[in-house]
Specification:
The protein has 402 residues and is α/β, with parallel strands linked by helices. The protein has two domains: 3-166 and 346-367, Rossmann fold, CATH 3.40.50; 168-334 and 371-392, Dihydrodipicolinate Reductase, domain 2 (2-Layer Sandwich). The chain contains 13 helices and 15 strands. The chain has helices spanning 3-12, 59-68, 82-92, 119-128, 143-156, 170-180, 200-204, 212-215, 219-222, 225-235, 336-342, 344-360, 368-387; strands at residues 48-53, 72-78, 95-97, 109-112, 132-135, 160-162, 187-195, 238-246, 259-266, 271-277, 285-292, 297-302, 310-315, 321-322, 391-392. A nine-stranded mixed β-sheet has the order 14-13-12-11-7-10-9-8-15. It has a six-stranded parallel β-sheet with strand order 3-2-1-4-5-6, with helices on both faces. Helix 2 crosses helix 12, helix 4 (119-128) runs parallel beside helix 5 (143-156) and helix 10 crosses helix 13 (368-387). The protein is globular and about 55 Å long. The two termini are 36 Å apart. It comes from Amycolatopsis acidicola. This is Gfo/Idh/MocA family oxidoreductase. Residues 173-296 form the GFO/IDH/MocA-like oxidoreductase domain.
């Protein structure tokens, strides 16, 4: 993944800040697929026509990224709530429409920012219309749905990417590079901690949150999925987990867990632990750490939540360095809007990679199949918590009954 190259493409576009009016030369350009001209960029590149479905919390990061990318036009934004779609589209200089109508607007790519249980229907609809699709995490709330989404896109020849923007942190990239070049060696020991604050109002603000049927899970599914993704990206394929979870703080408002602990065994023989909670006040951010066969250790810390993670441990012989994420003291917990806003640059990096992958007809950094790996781990974690036993991590499309 050439993050430096993606950053250069973003800078070349002269991107505005989120909320500013779009570039005046974004109107009426030709599609990258058809080559039929409105206008094209000065280097002759055809324009990718983009849309966003779902105008909720994180959608602004997608809309601003498409609007600000060179050779990309944000055409339309859709939501089941017409008023919300209208306000959102006006903010980002696009047309407002409905999810049923957006695929009639000649889109090349679409971001799916709808609630978890609706991902399958929207992604498969995009595939049926030949539109390349970038889906917010988690890809789905069960592996059967994920398998159908992947199959639909592959059958239609459509690119499917899934948002895991924390892979684009420079700290994440450096750890991955240290694994690949042998500095750490094969990872054998890992840890992910997700120690966050949420008010109960976070769960009650949207009817779909906090239930098994519509949210698919709690802190593991919605927050820790990012860190589980990083953990498996570093450690390799997971084969078995053992998990316990409960709801310490929000149990009166939710069915799902707000706190969980787990162990994970990997195909390589490596082991890892996971601790996750939204019951802390104040939150203590997130960490992912790995130790390789060389004995060297590298870890990153995200504090406060939503900030760019930094390497807090680099225990490589001759290169030792540590930096406490709490060096400036504890910070107040940020609102969800501020958390999402601070992650926008890394959404932009992944969206830039996705549009480049579409243009270059290659796989994006995080494919649907890659994203299904963290969902498979989550599926096994919930099954283990229900059974009280270790559970095997299932293959794509294989269901485990909770």
């Amino acid at each position: 993944m050439d993050v430096r190259g993606v950053r250069c493409r973003l800078r070349a576009g002269g991107a505005d800040r989120a909320g500013d009016v779009p570039h005046p030369d974004r109107a009426a350009r030709r599609s990258w697929r058809t080559g039929h001209c409105g206008h094209c960029h000065r280097d002759g590149a055809a324009v990718i026509r983009a849309g966003v479905i779902g105008c909720g919390n994180v959608a602004g990061n997608h809309a601003s990224a498409y609007r600000d990318l060179p050779d990309t036009e944000l055409v339309a934004c859709a939501d089941v709530d017409p008023a919300r779609a209208g306000e959102f589209a006006a903010r980002y200089g696009a047309a407002a429409t409905s999810p049923a109508e957006i695929f009639g607007l000649g889109l090349d790519v679409v971001s799916v920012c709808t609630p978890h249980p609706t991902h399958e229907a929207v992604v498969t609809e995009a595939a049926a219309h030949g539109v390349q699709v970038l889906c917010e995490k988690p890809i789905a709330i069960d592996l059967g749905a994920a398998a159908r989404m992947i199959e639909a896109c592959e059958r239609a020849g459509v690119t499917l990417g899934v948002l895991f923007q924390r892979r684009f942190w420079p700290a994440s990239q450096r750890i991955r590079a240290a694994i690949d070049d042998g500095t750490l060696g094969e990872p054998v020991l890992g840890h992910a901690s997700v120690l966050l604050h949420r008010e109960t109002s976070y769960y009650t603000a949207d009817a779909w949150r906090g239930t098994w049927k519509t949210d698919g899970g709690g802190v593991l599914m919605t927050q820790a999925v990012h860190n589980i993704d990083l953990l498996q990206w570093f450690m390799g394929d997971a084969v078995e987990v053992h998990c316990s979870h409960t709801a310490f703080k929000h149990g009166d408002a939710i069915e799902v867990e707000d706190t969980a602990v787990a162990t994970v065994r990997f195909a390589s023989g490596g082991l890892a632990t996971i601790a996750a909670s939204t019951a802390l006040t104040p939150g203590l951010g997130t960490r992912v750490q790995v130790t390789g066969r060389t004995g060297a250790t590298a870890g990153l810390a995200e504090y406060p939540e939503g900030s760019e993670a930094r390497l807090d441990v680099w225990a490589v012989p001759g290169q030792e360095a540590v930096a406490s994420p709490f060096g400036a003291g504890l910070a107040e917990d940020l609102t969800l809007a501020r958390i999402n806003g601070s992650l926008a640059p890394f959404h932009a990096l992944q969206i830039a990679d996705f549009t480049a992958a579409v243009r270059e007809r290659r796989e994006p950094a995080v494919t649907g199949r890659e994203a299904a790996k963290s969902l498979a781990i989550l599926t096994a974690l919930y099954a283990s918590a229900a059974s009280g036993r270790p559970e095997a991590v299932p293959a794509l499309g294989k269901e485990i009954t909770r």
